[in-house]
Amino acid sequence: MEDKFFRFLKIVGVGFKARAESEVRLLYLKLGCSHEVELVVSPVIRVFCLKNNVVCCIGIDKDMVHQFAAAVRSCKPPEVNQGKGIMYKICLNDQKDIQDIH
């Protein structure tokens, strides 16, 4: 069984979209510029879009997945005041479920 590491990225902003093409191994980001940002996906990583504003990066190598997610995030870092940009999507567990276990 192979361990799979994943990272979700959420794109927040008016008109910000993502599109992944698996055959060509490219990720296109529309981030408010006059052109689309084009990122080449390495063969170790698989990228797909759940919605046009949620990107999922999956791979066997944890470092490569996190490095690619950081490269995507660096295209439009999150702004603190306006809340726009590319952010990591964090899935938190419910605290009540954790307390019931103990």
TrEMBL record:
One of its GO terms (cellular component) is ribonucleoprotein complex. GO terms for biological process: translation. The keyword Ribonucleoprotein applies. One of its GO terms (molecular function) is rRNA binding. Keywords: Ribonucleoprotein, Ribosomal protein. Transmembrane segments: none annotated. Gene3D superfamilies: Ribosomal protein L6, alpha-beta domain. It comes from the Eukaryota. SUPFAM superfamilies: Ribosomal protein L6 (SSF56053). Residues 12-88 form the Large ribosomal subunit protein uL6 alpha-beta domain. InterPro entries: Ribosomal_uL6-like, Ribosomal_uL6-like_a/b-dom_sf, Ribosomal_uL6_a/b-dom, Ribosomal_uL6_bac-type. Belongs to the universal ribosomal protein uL6 family. PANTHER family: 60S/50S RIBOSOMAL PROTEIN L6/L9, RIBOSOMAL PROTEIN L6-RELATED. This is 60S ribosomal protein l6 mitochondrial. It comes from Phtheirospermum japonicum. The lineage of its organism: Eukaryota, Viridiplantae, Streptophyta, Embryophyta, Tracheophyta.
